[in-house]
Amino acid sequence: MKRPIGVTLAAVVAIIGSVISLLFAAGFLFSANQPVPGPINFRNFAYGLSAFTTACSILGIATARGLLNLRAWARMSILIFAGVIAVLFLLTGIVALLIPMPPDTAIPAERMRMVKAGMTVVYAIPFLIGVWWLIQFNTKKTKDAFLAAQAESGEAAEPGAIVSPGRPTAITIIAWLNILGGVFVLLGSLGGLPAIVFGYMISGWSATFFYVFIGGVTTFLGWGLLKLDERARIAMLGWIGLTFLHSAFVMLVPSARARMLAAQTAIQDSLRVGSSTAAPPIAEPGGAFTYVMVGFGMAAMALMAWFLVRERRAFDAPASP
């Protein structure tokens, strides 16, 4: 079957994006030795972020090549990329619009509004690309093209592969989002980033253990979902429920919300360079920024839980290759 033009264009855009990501990875690598005050080990964090970005770029190029050859795994890979890009840049755009600027900034208010408008456009482009990919690779024409190519080549996949005939698409996407997210969380342990738990800030070895634990559990459960392990599905539902309760506790309990704000302010103050003025908080308790970010995260968790419940029959037996 002839390859749809939308698939070809998506592959070209994926290659361009991967090359840009490689440039960012090089930038992280070259900036690793820059002195950054505060509790963060920026060198280790930059090295880890560079390696992670490089791996994603290589996977992006491989995915583009697979799309040009109409490989089933490449279609699933681009859907995962699309979901991550759409969510990431949507959240980043919200942050850019809602985060208050420092009161001591010398930039005029009118110019600052223009800067924010420009940032919104920059973040909107990859977000729209992610939405385009989600639509493009779920159309009947595109699916038929990949199915026809798969039938011609006899392509098959093992149960733990990126795509498997016995595993629902939603479960595959959830699994890989958790695997990639867990690996990214592990970067926090490399950089010595402080963590906020129930509104309290922890640092040092406690924070390192926290990031290793969170990243390890998330990655492990994601891999279990790829294997269609019923125990992993139940555990993931429990993990989502625990995370949901934590977010609700921090949002609804005034003392916890106040502690979270104080912890955020303390982290920002420790990163201020060459200024005696304390950094402003990201958002005031109960402000729009806090409700939007936490609400978005809780909605995403609820959506994942819904798919895990809806597709529970797929976990009755191991997926067949």
Task: Explain how this protein is built.
The protein is mostly helical. It has two domains: 1-155, no CATH class; 164-321, no CATH class. It has helices at 5-30, 42-68, 72-98, 109-136, 140-153, 169-191, 205-226, 230-252, 254-271, 288-310, and strands spanning 195-197, 200-202. A two-stranded antiparallel ribbon has the order 1-2. It is globular, with a radius of gyration of 21 Å. The two termini are 24 Å apart. Residues 273-286 have low confidence and may be disordered.
Category by helix and strand content? mainly alpha
Low-pLDDT parts are 273-286
- Strand fraction equals under 5%
Supply the number of helical segments.
10
SSE pattern, N- to C-terminal: HHHHHHEEHHHH
Overall radius of gyration: 21 Å
Straight-line distance between termini: 24 Å
CA-based shape:
globular
Which keywords apply here?
321 residues; mainly alpha; 2 domains; two-stranded antiparallel sheet; 2 strands
What topology emerges from the helices and strands here?
Blueprint: H1 5-30, H2 42-68, H3 72-98, H4 109-136, H5 140-153, H6 169-191, E1 195-197, E2 200-202, H7 205-226, H8 230-252, H9 254-271, H10 288-310
Antiparallel strand pairs: 1-2
Short characterization:
With 321 residues, the chain is mostly helical. The protein is built from 10 helices and 2 strands; from the N terminus they run ααααααββαααα.
